[in-house]
Amino acid sequence: MDVNEVLLPGVGLRYEFDNTDGDRIGVVAKRAGDFEVVLYAAEDPDVAQPLFHLNAEEADALAQILGAPRIAERFADLTHEVPGLEAGQVSIDPDSPYADRPLGDARVRTRTGASVVAIVRDEDVQPSPGPADVLRVGDILVIIGTEEGITQVEHIFDKG
Q1: Is the pLDDT of residue 57 over 70?
Q2: Mean per-residue pLDDT for 124-136?
């Protein structure tokens, strides 16, 4: 899909794309940090009808909602393209030895060869977590590696 980016001097940036129904959708990212989603009139592409306004926090929430399933889907697609590569999920349970500890303490990649590529916490997705990111009970770790590596990661977070 082609997304056009247009500089709006003094306002911010406008992103535009055509959806599968043929509608032209625009998102105006204002310099102040808020966003406006608009629909362009088919009869006059210079006229935009505002659909809704989002402050920065609302825009982040919407991005998380729309982005979380796409991240998992992209990893699943990747595992189909690379023989021997799998995607898995590991929960941080209350009895996990790594609950409330930094991810780096588990030394996942060193011990298993698998990688933690995201942490899902409630509705938030943190892609590419670093070793200092603290794990919380209820977190779901998205793992990429071999089937054996993912099993080893499950064991690490269950038993230590």
Answers
A1: yes
A2: 90
Average pLDDT over residues 89-93: 92
- Position 79 scores a pLDDT of 57
Residue 2: half-sphere exposure toward Cβ, Cα within 13 Å: 5
> Measured between alpha carbons, how far is 41 from 25 in angstroms, rounded to an integer?
10
Q: How far apart are the first and last CA of the chain?
A: 44
Per-residue pLDDT for 59 more than 80?
yes
| 3-state DSSP of the chain | CCCEEEEECCCEEEEEEECCCCCEEEEEEECCCCEEEEEECCCCCCCEEEEEEECHHHHHHHHHHHHHHHHHHHHHHHHHHCCCCEEEEEECCCCCCCCCCEHHHHCHHHHHCCEEEEEEECCEEEECCCCCCECCCCCEEEEEECHHHHHHHHHHHHHC
Q: Under a CB-based contact definition with an 8 Å cutoff, are residues 112 and 152 in contact?
A: yes
Residue listed under structure tokens 């402050």: 55
How far apart CA 3 and CA 44 sit, in angstroms, is 19
State how far the Cα of 23 lies from the Cα of 26, in Å rounded to an integer.
Answer: 10
